[in-house]
Task: structure prediction
Amino acid sequence: METNPGLYGLLAEFDNPATLVQATRSAYEAGYRRMDAYAPFPIEELPDALGFHRTRMPLLILIGGIVGALSGFALQYYCAVISYPINVAGRPLNSWPSWIPVTFELTVLIASLTAVFGLLALCGLPMPYHPLFHVPRFSRASRDAFFLCIESTDPRFERTSTRDFLAGLSPREVTEVPQ
Amino acid sequence: MAPEPKDHKHEIGDGVPPVMGPGYTFRSVSEKISSITLARQTPRAWWLGFAVTFAFTMMMLYTILYLLFEGVGIWGINVPVAWGFAIVNFVWWIGIGHAGTLISAILLLLHQKWRTSINRFAEAMTLFAVANAGLFPLFHMGRPWFFYWLLPYPNTMRVWPQFRSPLVWDVFAVSTYGTVSLLFWYVGLIPDLATLRDRARNRFVQIIYGIMAMGWRGSAYHWKRYEMTYLILAALATPLVLSVHTVVSFDFAVAILPGWHSTIFPPYFVAGAIYSGFAMVLVLAIPLRTFYGLQDFITLKHLQNMGKVMLATGLIVAYGYGIEAFMGFYSGNIYEKFSQVNRMFGPYATSYWALIFCNVVAIQVLWFKSVRDNPPWLFLVSLIVLVGMWLERYVIVVTSLHRDYLPSSWGNYSPTVWDWTMFLGTIGFFFALMFLFIRLLPMISISEMQTLLAESKEKGEVTTEEKR
Result:
């Protein structure tokens, strides 16, 4: 079903964050869905304009934290009660108050590891190659330029009409991104 | 060197300096910060500083080599003072690290805008301080090659670590702290590494930063997840940083030794940690901003605020000293009372009164706005605080250990030359790592400074138009 062979998408460059957000909203209203916007710093309205309202990150990290807490406590319970019980001055083997610090540390550790590796996994990083890196001007996306890319996999994507649509959003320029 | 110090003392009507100098654009912020890293020429003063600190690093490595060869007997430790410099320096370095996490995590949650330009190198400071701190207990073990016995792993000896001991909590607290600080720092660096990758002209440099940036391209989807992750990491690091020095203080407070066995220890240790950490941030920030001409990013506002935090935490620490002394007498316990009297008038009285001078008396000058406005003065006060906080740990460790319940086990402690070479060596190592950091990585977060700029533009605080 490749209707636009060799084309990843069309990339429009904008002057400032406000026009990028405006353009993204217009593209969303025009029915485009497979698109992404690029900026050197986070712009609050941009994900909403793209129709991306919620991320699964908090849920992932919560699960990581719960796993960390349970495994931290279980580790100490196993060591001190099951595998290597030592009677210290007649205190109970399951002396849980003194296990709170390690349980807490492991909660934070596993939650943080989940956060960072989860972020990389959800973003599909590391990704050393990406079609956008073919566009020389795209290197400014990490400095001072703002881009909107409508991808060729979008059902409404059509080489000329999409190009005309983007050109109508007052971009600095519109470029074709090879696959 | 910067030609003229450009401190914007009177930029805004009410006399409050801004968090960023005027006239910046997204482009100039990005270029100003990244060009320090990408500059072809390394400043001569950098080489000089690095050479000196590297020499101290070599001294540390030589000490470690000799220690491995000869054993911990080369240090001044012995019964009854078996902890000595190793634990003093461990607590001192860990404490210094705390300010970095406080600035990057707690101030982020509290929406303190002024943290933006100092968080990156404060986090680097945390990492390097924790690395130095870890060296001391490691080599104090005597047989450091068995360090893994501290970790719970199934072994042929069929024993497990004793999880009721604060020393085991410490292993978990410090290693978690080091790992989480590294993750937090790296996540913060990813967008800036992409900037460096895109700006670099040298192929080799492009590849190195390209690998580290992992293909970051500033996608809005990525930014949304990134911001959420960063916020939650800050929320996780906040209780973590408080827990780490609490656990360190448990090493003392859970022991039954007079002068240690006290519930004031956790809060008073945490306050002391932040106090010394802010002193170290100032010691680093004041020369850096002058040398690299960053007065527009690290403004007087930052220095003033750090001065205020130092004063506030310093007063908490002073309260801790007061309560310690009061409880020593009020408890009616002869051992507690003796340990207080011995601290103030015993063989280590000089150290005690020096610490009171450094930590309680000297910082009172921070009440004056003219001192908080004056970088050289702040620098001097910060150095005094660093010395004072080191003396505090020295007094706590040594005075309680050298006089315990039985006079027959009393003794004295004095450091040997190898104690000093190890300690000064780690200071050199710390600064050598800082020198490498400011040369190889952006010392101020570019994307966060741009966010700050975008926010101030919306509010009309910055009037200049984006120019091409």
The two ends of chain A are 15 Å apart (CA to CA).
